[in-house]
Each structure stands twice: as C-alpha cells, then as structure tokens.
Amino acid sequence: MNASFFASVPYAAEVKTRDWPAPPVLCDRATGAKTMNRAMEQALFAEELGFDWVSCSEHHYSPRILTPSPMIFAAALTQRMKRARIALLGPLMPLSNPIRVAEELAMLDAMSGGRIIVLFLRGTPNEILTYRNNPDESREITQEGVELILRAWTEPQPFGWEGRYFNYRTVSVWPRTVQEPHPKVFTSGNGPESVRFAARNRIGLALSFLGLPAVKQRVELYHEEAAKEGWQPSADDVLYRFFAHVAESDEEAARNIGTIKVDLRTLFNINQGVVEAVTGNRPEMREIESPFLCGGPATVVDQIGELRAAGVGNMDMSFTWPTISYPQQLRSMEVVGKSVLPQIRGL
Amino acid sequence: MAQARQPDRLSTGATIEIDGVQLRVREAGSGRPLVVLGDDGQIDALRNGLAKHNRVLAIEVSGGEGLDARKLAEAAAAALARMKLEQFSVIGISRGAALALTLAVFAPHQIDKLILMSPPPMAALDEEVRAGLAQVAAPTLVMVGSRDRSGGAETMRALREKIAACHLLLVYDAGEAIAAERPDACLTPIGEFLERGIEFVVCHESQVIRR
C-alpha cells in the first residue's frame, strides 16, 4: 500500500466566506505568500515521515486549495524533495491545453528524475466555469485530452491530431518523459462511464471521497471492464483519496473531530445553483460525519486493511477537516508516519 | 505497357480492364483531378465532400491476383493515361493505400500530392515498393484512426521515416474505417492538404472572438 500526503495548500488563515468564487479582496497578500511557504514545509515534513507520495491538485478561485497551477507547485517540490514521488492529482482537462500539459509533465518528470504520477480530472462543476468552458461537455473533453496526452508522450514521430475538441497539426513533445513509456496515469472513476474509460485505455482508476461499499463496487466494475479489454489491473492501478485524522487513540481522534456533519458540496465551496446548471450531478457529493480514516493507529491500520481488500493500492490522505487545526494536522501526520506506515508496508 | 481494351470516354461506373485487372471508375465533380483508390463504402463517405473542389475519379480495383505491384501500377497508370490525366493527386484508402503507394513509387512525377488513409501493414506492401519509398516525391499525408488496431499506427511511423515530406495525422475516435466513421474530420485536413500541401500545418484562421 502506497501512502500519499495530499498537500492541499489551504489558505493559512480563517476566511469568512463559503462562496465560490471567493472575492480576492479577502486574500491578504502576505498570508498568500505564507500559505505557499507553509505548504512546502508540510510537504517536506511528509517526505521526512516516510510518505511514499506527496500530491497536489488543481482548484481555482477559492481559499480552500491555493494551487490553481499544480505544475508550479510540483516544480518547486521537485527541487526540494529527494525521495518521495510527486503526484499531480490532477490537472483539470477541460481547463487545459493538453499538449501544454503533456510538455509540462514531461519537464517535471525530467526535473524529478522520473518521480511524477498524474491523475487527469474533469474538475468540480463550478471550476469548469473558471475559464468559461461548457460544463456539459467536460467528460468528453477530458477523455479526448487524456488520449491525446498519452499519444503525445508515446508517438516517436511528429503527428497531427484531428479531434472533436482538440485540433493540432503538429505535436512533437520534448523532453520525453524519463519514465518509459510515460508516468503512471490515473483518471477519475467515480462514475461508471469513467470506470469503463480507464479500463479501455489501460490506465489507473482514481476514486475520491466515496464510502467503502462504493469503492468496492467501482473497483469490481473496473476489473470486469478491464477483463473485457484483455487485461488485469492490480492494486497499484487503484488510487483512493479521502480525509484522514489519526491520533494516539480512538478516543482522542473522536474528541478532536467532534460531532459535525460535513456536506461535501459546502466543504468544496460548490454552489448548488451551479451544480444544478451542470448536467450529471456528481454522486460523490454527499454528507459525511467523519474522515474516512479516523482513530488511533490500530483502528486505522484495520481500516487500511479493508481498503486494501477492496483492491486499493494507493491511498491519498487529506489531513484537513473543519474541526482540525493546522498543528493537529501536523500531529496526525506524525502519528501516521511513526505508527501506521511501518505496519502497512506489507499490505 | 499493357493495352487498354475499353472505350476512351468514361461514364459513371465504366470499367477498364487491363491485363485481367478491372478498374471501375466513377467520376464526380470538377476541378483538380483527384484519384481515389479504395473500396466503395469508404469512398462514398468522402466523395460528395471531395467533389466540391475536385474532379474525383474513384477507382475500385479488382482482379489481377498474382500480378506483382509494378504490373498493377502499370495497369492503373495506363487507365489514368486513357483518361488524359498527366498529373493528379491520389487518395488511397485501406488496401487502396497500397496501390496508391505503388503508383507513387513507380510514377513519382505524376502525383502531386499523396494521401494514405488507414494504410495496410508494411509487410503487406510489395518488397519493391518498400524498397522504393524514398523515391516518393509527392508531399504525403498519412491518416490513421486513434482506435486503429490493424497496425495502421506502426505503418504511419515507418512511412514517416522513409518518405521525405510525410505528415502524420491521427483521427480521434475512429478505427480502421476512418472515412466512414468520421468523414467530416477527414475532409477538412484532406481539403487543406490538397490545397496547400505540407503548409497545411499553418493556421490562417482569424482568432479574433468579436470585432
């Protein structure tokens, strides 16, 4: 089981808004800079604790996650981190030029000595509106973009691309990725059609913030669809992102978390009116009462065992939670590093 | 050179037979001569679009089993000569791409642009043709579907290495029958390539959103 620390890069102060977009006037300039420095220190701390990956993501116009360009944050990580892999989970395809994404990821792979992992995503409904893209077509755009990037990384000769959403007459990416044929790639598998896409293209499956039964169901579908395509995924092909809070004991963890219900739409600053304007409301957007992993080390190791039994081989952990302070996040990471990771190495 | 035995004036669907090779020719449109080699289904998907700006001569080849590539090319060249075509562009689709390549190798100065769609595996080409690919003088466009599982992608890469002015184009979300599956996605680059050759990579479309 690979353990990934999700460097979500939250704004390093309280912000009194849940609106999206959040007004820029609420962003104190010095705090913006402090946020970046703090996030880098936290990522380095995760590597020191033994996490296998440090991940970052792409989100826009919100204090929740201050990495509108995951490439820039990852580039900084390549120069500071010496061992752990750097996972970009991930570039939002409807907001991106896929050739540019292929080029930048290839650069990062070269800069990191071949430590890049990537998850290509559609983005949350509101974020598709960041650059005024049509949300109705986000799945199709994402799928075409992924196929184009894979070709851009693997075709040995310059080529053109006559797509439905992308059209290029000349593609010829330099540098080539260090990893051959290319860095490990995941796509979102939260919906059944996306699961089929991952299986058809023989790429990894990424799930996020689902309950364990839904994780099992998606992984089973992934295996069924892959079998139809003539291949067999392993646990290494499945990534699951979730919230985690780990303390010295179950009691302490429960006390820290408290009793609140968290609506993921609210947590992710997703305006419900916008969601309704987008076709295909996301099934993963639901109410949860506690982080997926929650408890003392023994309990959490058991939970991770269940996750592994469900076919997950990579877990991406976000230590943020509305009731957990930044020092508590660091402490939780430390407990995972010292008391959990050594026990799950063999899983 | 083989002797043609069919009438000079061709009507739609006329057949020329040369050395046991039947070449059924259908003609549409007017403009620059464009020879299209392939099976009827794939040609039909493109014919109306191509005929807007070209004199399309769609040729379906049958018979001639056992003839070597050079003989086949001579038969096709003889048929084209009967039609008073001295210089023309050629589109070869699937198996027709092999014949188009053969023509391009043995009659390089007659062909001003060559387009190969879903070409067959290199192993399916005559040895003399494979050895002569460097003689292909025409700017060449090779089009393959992104879902092609017949080896088209391997062929296009090999052709790119052998042919001096060769451009590759992947047609997204199409398999082996790219013309039938995504005709509009094929017609645009084909039209631009016939018009401008390799310079079709340059975009002159205005990117102004609103004036």
Descriptive report:
By secondary structure, chain A is of the alpha/beta class. Chain A contains twelve helices and 13 strands. In chain A, strands 1-2-3-4-7-8-9-13 form an eight-stranded parallel β-barrel, surrounded by seven helices. In chain A, strands 5-6 form a two-stranded antiparallel sheet. A two-stranded antiparallel sheet of chain A has the order 10-11. In chain A, β7, α6 and β8 (204-208) form a beta-alpha-beta unit. Chain A starts with a strand and ends with a helix. Chain B has 211 residues and is an alpha/beta fold. Chain B has a single domain, classed as Rossmann fold (3-Layer(aba) Sandwich). Chain B contains seven helices and eight strands, in the order βββαβαβαβαβαβαα. The longest helix of chain B has 14 residues, at 69-82. The radius of gyration of chain B is 17 Å and the shape is globular. Residues 1-11 of chain B have low confidence and may be disordered. The chains are: A alpha/beta (347), B alpha/beta (211). At the A-B interface, α5 and β5 of A face α5, β8 and α7 of B.
CATH superfamily of chain B, by name, is Alpha/Beta hydrolase fold, catalytic domain
Sheet of most strands of chain B: 8 strands, mixed
**Spatial extent as radius of gyration of chain A:** 19 Å
Query: CATH fold name of chain B, please?
Result: Rossmann fold
Strand line-up of the largest beta sheet of chain A:
1-2-3-4-7-8-9-13
Could you give the order of the helices and strands of chain B? EEEHEHEHEHEHEHH
- The assigned CATH architecture of chain B is 3-Layer(aba) Sandwich
Runs of chain B in which pLDDT lies below 50 for 5 or more consecutive residues are 1-11
Nearest-integer average pLDDT of chain A = 93
Helix/strand structural class of chain B: alpha/beta
Residue runs with pLDDT of under 50 for 5 or more positions of chain A: none
User: In one word, what is the shape of chain A?
Assistant: globular
Q: Can you count the helices of chain B?
A: 7
Please count the helical segments of chain A: 12
The number of distinct β-strands of chain A equals: 13
- Total DSSP E strands of chain B: 8
Largest sheet of chain A: 8 strands, parallel, barrel
Order of helices and strands of chain A: EHEHEHEHHEEEHEHEHEHHEEHEH
Helical residues, percent of chain A: 40-55%
